[in-house]
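Comment thread on ticket #2218

A.B. wrote:
> Attaching the input chain for the structure job we discussed in standup.
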Amino acid sequence: HGTGHGVGFFLNVHEGPQGFSPVPNTPRANTTLEPGMLTSIEPGLYKEGHYGIRIENLVLCKEAGKTEFGEFLEFEAVTLFPIELDLVDADLLSKEEKEWLNKYHEKVYSEVAPLLTTEEQAWLKHKCRSL
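C.D. wrote:
> Ran it. Output below, let me know if you need it in another format.
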C-alpha cells in the first residue's frame, strides 16, 4: 500500500497523477510534484489478521522559494485535525519531530478554535497539548 496519493474533487479520492508508491517505475511513483497538487500523506501500520491504523492528512504542494541550489517546493497542511497523542510514543520521536507535531497542533488550535463552542474549544485544547 502506498503512503499517499493525489486527491481529486467530486469524491474522486484517488486521483493522479502523483502519489507515494512503494512500487518503483510506475506513473504514480515517477510523477514530479508541482505547485497546486493536493496529495494525501498517510503512513500506516497493519498487523496481519488483527488491525490496521493510518494517520491521513491532506497537503497542498506550494512553491517554497529559490536558493543557490535551485527552486524548492513545500507542503502546507490542509487537514486541520489533531493527531491523537495517546497513540504517540514521544520517546521514539526526534526533537525535530516533536517540534513539528507541536507546531502543527498550534496551527490546528489557532485556526479551528474560533469556529467552536467553549466546550469544544476545551476538548480541542486538550487534544492539541504539547508533547
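A.B. wrote:
> Thanks. Noting for the ticket: The chain has two domains: 1-79, 82-131.
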